[in-house]
Write a structure and sequence with these properties.
Blueprint: H1 2-31, H2 40-44, H3 48-54, H4 58-65, H5 78-83, H6 95-101, E1 102-105, E2 114-118, H7 121-125, H8 132-135, H9 150-162, H10 171-182, H11 191-199, H12 210-214, H13 235-259, H14 263-280, H15 287-291, H16 295-305
Antiparallel strand pairs: 1-2
Helix pairs in contact: 10-13, 13-14, 13-16
The chain binds heme C (4 copies).
């Protein structure tokens, strides 16, 4: 009898210990919980100029328009596309559509995410819940930008990157992120699901090219010291943007192509591969990437061309074609 109660006691202690460990790991995990979107409204407070630009883009406007059935029957029908996928039959409530068309926002971690706007700041710069407080903190409440120590700056940039901020300086990662949506290649959807959408009339644009699509309505480049000027890129900057965009398209399309047997989806991705290869032809630094289009090689390529002027090597799109 005595032995049994000792056994039970030990069992109980074990249970407490285990519960403690699980509880603790749960707590550690939740401190690093899935980052979520806080919404563009919050960014406006400090990034007014960027917000104004965004409000004049299709990414913003689309929130009010894209779910509506077009009168012109030759245009893509949201209803038909929704029929091809699982889940809710209303676009703003369908998980698949939300991944690319909307920003699912939450006030805090326990909040139910809700489509608050179209594609927005956090779609391109990363969900901000974990990096927001870090990215603009120069080392304490009273420390101003020009008082920040060099060490602190390095740490601030690295820490917010680790928490999911895609800094504008991370050229390849920024471009790669456009391709997730514009290449119809979202990692949270299977190639089969994406192919079904395509089959139901969802558009894909193999001519999505980074300079053309980022330097028109979307462009916001208010960098110090001229923070009031939305600066245009120099030809050298444009040439790097162009090849980095092609590198990201090449990797995205090569991966997408290998995942599907659907003829239409495969053909669209093949076209993206062909366009990207044409865009990179004649760029000496791209040889390794063209031979083996992996993400690793693309990142290496982006590092190799940093600071170079390739405007004599690539054919840039005409300004009048910017979107
Ligand atoms: C309380 C003010 C504040 C809020 C709110 C805020 N930011 Fe910032 N943000 C700043 C400051 C200040 C900087 C400049 C940091 C630096 O000097 O590197 C910055 C920098 C950035 C940068 C990098 C700019 C560069 O030059 O590389 C991005 C991107 C950015 N913020 C996005 C956002 C987004 C998206 C939101 C909303 C989710 C947001 N910020 C909310 C103050 C803010
Ligand atoms: C992988 C990202 C992605 C997903 C998922 C996605 N879309 Fe799209 N959708 C896009 C992009 C990018 C465009 C713009 C394509 C273009 O015109 O080049 C677009 C365009 C559209 C258009 C045409 C809009 C117009 O202006 O003509 C409709 C309609 C549409 N999507 C419906 C849906 C529906 C319904 C779902 C959910 C079942 C969905 N999409 C899921 C990325 C996506
Ligand atoms: C379609 C993707 C996209 C969206 C949406 C977007 N950005 Fe950006 N953002 C970029 C890119 C690309 C750059 C890099 C610009 C460059 O350096 O050429 C950038 C640069 C920036 C910068 C640094 C340049 C500057 O203007 O100071 C800030 C800050 C910034 N974004 C904040 C925001 C905020 C705030 C929003 C929402 C109101 C937003 N972005 C929406 C893609 C986007
Ligand atoms: C989260 C998904 C997503 C990301 C990331 C994204 N976009 Fe988009 N973008 C869309 C969707 C969806 C549309 C189409 C909206 C519609 O037609 O209603 C669109 C439309 C556009 C348009 C308007 C095209 C036209 O024909 O008028 C431009 C320009 C654009 N995106 C540029 C960019 C660039 C550049 C980047 C990266 C810096 C980017 N987008 C990142 C989802 C995204």
């Amino acid at each position: 009898m005595k032995q049994r109660s000792l056994f039970l006691k030990l069992l109980f202690l074990n249970f407490l210990l285990l519960a403690g460990i699980i509880g603790l790991s749960g707590w550690v995990a939740s401190a690093d919980a899935n980052p979520f979107n806080k919404g563009a409204k919050l960014c406006e407070e400090c990034h007014e100029a960027e917000f104004k630009i965004w409000k004049n883009t299709k990414h913003f406007e689309s929130f009010r328009t894209v779910h509506r059935e077009p009168k012109d029957k030759s245009k893509p029908s949201p209803k038909k596309i929704l029929e091809a996928v699982e889940g809710e039959k209303r676009m703003k409530r369908n998980k698949a559509c939300s991944l690319c068309h909307y920003t699912l926002e939450q006030k805090d971690a326990d909040d139910k995410p809700d489509a608050g706007s179209g594609t927005s700041c956090e779609s391109c710069h990363g969900p901000s819940s974990e990096w927001l407080e870090i990215h603009d903190n120069y080392g304490g409440k009273d420390v101003k930008r020009d008082q920040e120590s060099a060490d602190h700056k390095v740490k601030r940039i690295a820490d917010s990157k680790a928490k999911g901020l895609i800094w504008p300086s991370m050229k390849y990662e920024v471009a790669e992120n456009c391709m997730v949506c514009h290449g119809l290649a979202h990692p949270e959807l299977t190639a089969d699901e994406l192919a079904k959408m395509l089959g139901a009339g969802h558009p894909i644009n193999p001519d999505f090219e980074l300079v053309k699509y980022s330097q028109g309505s979307v462009r916001h480049r208010y960098y110090p010291p001229n923070i009031k000027e939305n600066a245009e890129m120099t030809p050298a900057e444009l040439s790097r943007e162009y090849v980095v965009g092609q590198a990201a398209a090449l990797v995205s399309a090569t991966n997408a192509m290998s995942k599907s047997e659907d003829p239409k989806y495969k053909a669209a991705q093949e076209q993206r591969v062909a366009n990207a290869k044409a865009g990179l032809s004649g760029v000496p630094e791209a040889a390794g990437l063209l031979a083996a289009p992996t993400r690793e090689n693309a990142l290496k390529f982006a590092a190799d061309i940093a600071g170079k002027d390739l405007s004599g090597v690539v054919k840039l799109p005409a300004k009048s074609d910017y979107k």
